[in-house]
Design brief:
Elements lengths: L1 E4 L5 E4 L2 H6 L9 E4 L3 E5 L9 E5 L11 H22 L4 E4 L9 E6 L14 H11 L3 H21 L1
Antiparallel strand pairs: 1-2, 3-4, 4-5, 5-7, 6-7
Helix pairs in contact: 2-4
The chain binds zinc ion (ZN).
Zinc ion binds next to α1.
Length: 163
């Protein structure tokens, strides 16, 4: 078990945060943004950045090459859909994507929107961590983040109905 600090300051103890979230044991702020048979998307629970989406697999795996073919297709379609919603609804021009396979959780992709204030930390992969920490320390924009979740949910639900 390890301790994880959520965006709302609550500290929880879990074996795998991704399992806890995708199974519904832990409800991230704003709940599920969108869900497929194999993946679960939610706002990052630790860093308050509007439109930051985490896409986690439902299976407890670590690496890209563990995805089945069906999961691979589901994954890329879902990511493209979320990316488009970030652009159309939240006006997010650029997103940084990353995932690390030696995570202490399980397979999850970070979709980190780029906002103007982030460029003072640079454009490289090294800039991502300081940006996240800055957001956690300095940004008290909970309403804005929750609004972003609500808008993304609505848009993705609408897209889902369209097929
Ligand atoms: Zn897990």
């Amino acid at each position: 078990m390890k301790e994880v600090t959520l965006a709302n300051g609550k500290i929880i103890k879990v074996d795998c945060l991704s399992c806890a979230i995708t199974s519904g044991k832990v409800e991230p702020d704003g709940g599920v943004i969108v869900e497929t048979d194999h993946f679960h998307a939610h706002q990052d629970v630790a860093y308050p950045i509007k439109g930051l989406v985490i896409v986690a697999s439902k299976r407890h795996i670590k690496c890209m090459d563990e995805l089945t073919e069906e999961e691979q297709l589901d994954y890329i379609k879902l990511i493209a859909k979320i990316r488009q919603a970030q652009r159309d609804i939240l006006g997010i021009e650029y997103v940084y994507f990353f995932y690390n396979e030696d995570t202490t959780h399980h397979f999850h992709l970070w979709m980190v929107p780029r906002y103007g204030w982030m460029y003072e930390f640079g454009r490289s992969v090294e800039s991502v961590r300081p940006v996240l920490l800055h957001a956690r320390k300095e940004k008290s924009n909970r309403e804005e983040v929750m609004e972003g979740i609500r808008l993304l949910k609505e848009e993705l639900k609408r897209k889902g109905r369209e097929g």
